[in-house]
Amino acid sequence: MASSTRKNAMYNVAYRLFSVLLPLVTAPYLSRTVGPEGVGLYSRAWSISYIFCLIAMLGLNDYGVRAIARVRDDRDRLDRTFSAIWQMQVMVAGATLAAWFGYVFLFAGEEREVALHLTLMSVSCLVSFDWCLMGLDIFRPIALRNTFVKSAAAVCVFLFVKGPEDLWIYALVWSLSTLLGNLSCVTSMRGRVRCVRVPLRESLTHLRPCAVLFISVMAVSIYRTMDKVMVSWIAGLEQNGQYENAEKIIYCLSGFISAIGTVMMPKISHMQQQGRTEEIRRHIDKSMNLILCMVCALAFGAAAVADRFAPLFYGEDFAEAGRLMAPLAFTLIMIGFANVIRTQWVLPQGRDRIFVKSVCAGAAVNLIANLCLIPSLRAMGAVIGTLLAELTVPVAQYLMLRGELPYGRFLGYTGIYCGIGLAMLLCVRAVGALLPGMGWAGLAVQVAAGIAVYGLLTLLYWKASGRMPRKLNKKVYKTEKL
Asked: Coil, strand or helix: which one is 29?
């Protein structure tokens, strides 16, 4: 991985993590302040608001990055492409904002006050330019400025949210931080791209390909966001609060995956434009090996400590969140596998329909599973539905791409790292059995033991298979020589 790519990956990991990590930092405080029902109420309001934001952005987070990456070497085409896409974005986001107000005042129920204070999330979609900066391979300002804004938001939560009656403040703080984060990145575009006058017809040419990707975005939201809405409506707000806090941890961990994929997509799109197909294949192989190594560690590690972590982190009222978190953690493996294929093969080639079909298949499986399982299994039914949905996506991709990519080798990586992860899980569980009732200290020992076991077994595998990263291999060689 080139030096610039590594730096962008680091910045984007920081950006993605701070987008989800700081709400996670405040989660224990909020859980104890407003309780499971308050968490469930906010979760439902935020989930519906997020769906409106997805509509407002209309697939731009993928399409915009790819479109800008393809023309970034030609300043005139870059300016016209940016201007046309933004003009389309303003039209769609403006119409969605009007629809959001209609929902809040006509259809929102007990969450109306919270939903009203989430309005700034929809407003922020008018000035969201992350897609342009990422397409230009500029990640540093996004990471640094969003880090500052969201850190300030976390401080405000601790200062001003004191009880269930302050839930609207929590909503306002996070929606305002989203808007300020987007506005703070506008100055980074100065001198790199400028607005030019383009006819409406030119803007509308971007509407159809964006709408195609939007189908997949909405499908993903069915099993990432609608889960929580369905749990709250079918099983109640308390169950939704448990599911929300379990899913929040896994969503935070998946930030590592999406961050690396977001960095690689503009790079691969640029390489695709230059016809460097064999180099792309080598990138995919390396990425798949490293991503699967990472996600198997996260999945088995999270499953191993979930039952102890959740009540310590959220409070004893959220012990059930730990039971939900353990199986939910394994979605990380499917997400990582599918993400590499999507961001480094399917989307850079403009084969959006393959992505849309695979995600829609996952959404259909999830919706059916939720309707069948949530009434009897409550929140655990949503967990099972999500597992089935995330498994469906890479399977559908395989059926459409099996002749193009070495899936046998990829599945080999998966089996090896899952075996290492299982060994780590058994070790962590054994350590936990030896240290009952030790709280955070016992959890820290479990985590340290898991890192040591997974790291050692992975290094042995890399050494035996010749897949040791070059820099790490030199360090190991020097150590052995000494």
From this structure: helix
Locate tokens 């299994």: which residue?
377
For residue 114, which of 205, 187, 43 has the smallest C-alpha distance?
A: 43
Would you state the pLDDT for residue 125? 93
* CA dist., res. 97 & res. 122, Å (int): 6
pLDDT under 50: residue ranges of the chain: 1, 472, 475-482
105-150: pLDDT as tens digits: 998 888 899 999 999 999 999 999 988 988 888 878 777 887 888 8
How many whole angstroms separate alpha carbon 339 and alpha carbon 260? 9
Instruction: Tell me the backbone φ, ψ of residue 292, rounded to 5 degrees.
Output: -65, -35
Half-sphere exposure (Cβ direction) of 162: Cα atoms closer than 13 Å: 2
The pLDDT value recorded for residue 400 is 93
List Cα–Cα distances, 150 to 92, 324, 413, in angstroms. Answer: 26, 28, 37
In 223-334, DSSP assigns E strands to none
For residues 347, 349, 350 and 354, what is the CA-based torsion angle, rounded to 10 degrees?
-60
Q: What is the 3-state secondary structure (H, E, C) of 320-369?
A: HHHHHHHHHCCHHHHHHHHHHHHHHHHCCCCCHHHHHHHHHHHHHHHHHH
Nearest to 22 by CA among 148, 164, 169: 148
Q: How many helices (H) and strands (E) does the chain have?
A: 20, 0
3-state secondary structure of 198: coil
Nearest-angstrom CA–CA distance, 269 and 79: 18
Q: d(Cα 101, Cα 119) in Å, to the nearest integer?
A: 8
Determine contact, residues 56/97, Cβ cutoff 8 Å: yes
263 phi and psi angles, rounded to 5 deg = -70, -40
Q: Alpha-carbon distance 166 to 62, whole Å?
A: 36
Task: Quote the pLDDT of residue 8.
Answer: 65
For 97, how many CA atoms within 13 A lie in the half-sphere containing its CB?
15
Q: What is the mean pLDDT of the chain?
A: 86
